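Message: I would value a second opinion on how I read folds in token form. Give me a protein, with the fold worked out from its sequence. Write it directly below this note and I will take it from there.
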Amino acid sequence: MLAKASCSFAKVAKVDWDDLRIFLAVARDESLSAAGRRLAMDASTVGRRVARLERGLGAALFVKTPQGYLLTERGRRLIAPAEAAEQAAAAAAEAASPAAGLSGQVRIGAPDGCANYLLPQICQRICADHPGLEVQIVALPRVISLSRREADMAITVSPPETGRLVVQRLTDYRLHLAGHADYLAAHPPIRDRSDLRGHRFVGYIPDMIFDRELDYLAETGAETATFASNSVSVQMQAIRAGAGLGIVHDFAVPFAPGVRRILTDQISLTRSFWLLRHADDRASGRMALLAEALALGIRREVARLEAIVAAASHRRT
């Protein structure tokens, strides 16, 4: 029994945190090159380090397939202790921080509307208050995977139904039908929904809508969009170019000169932003501080931009 325990300990003793860090990156990205980009090292180095870890443990952790590097049974068993080591390393770094506040690198995932029109100015203010903080914003037209560590926290338009996550409702935001002033001037006045017949519409590509909360073209009565994109920013630029009418975020309108909301009393949508964090980060003072700053910033910025739009509409009437 003692001999077996000693043998097991000898194998564990050969594992250090840096090897586990590389193992987790490959497990999450299922690719040596993608893991290398995440870790800022070349793919061949990643491969050598994985091989070293496998030799130390005396077991294969991955199997190479056409789909990428997939975990073996032994690899799957290593995920939980590796993630525990990851959390311990983060907690140690946080405890050793010389001063209170935010520092180091943090990655925030968000849908591209939020990432383009809200996060830049919000994160700039947070960084001004915390000069040691380095922020990365991941803008993707899909749900960010926290389980694969694509980001440290994510903003979504729907709360998740599964997963070990800390979920926080941030704020509601409003959307309305809009068009560019030149497009509107070139067509008969739009006074009610019946006047929308015959107009071109800008919206999402139907089979690329990644969240049911984004499926709002039906609010206009249009069956399909004649100009479609999976990006909110592209849709807004299309509306600015006169491609047609579309549903836009009120908070994005101040960034789109010439775009005017229409039928605001007849077509009005409300959606919500949610902040998601890893459940394992619940005890992290650093992540809690960032979440608090981000939540406050988003609430204030949405309110500020929507107030600008409301005031401009009031002046025009």
Summary: The CA atoms of residues 158 and 274 lie 7 Å apart. Residues 1-13 have pLDDT under 50 and may be disordered.
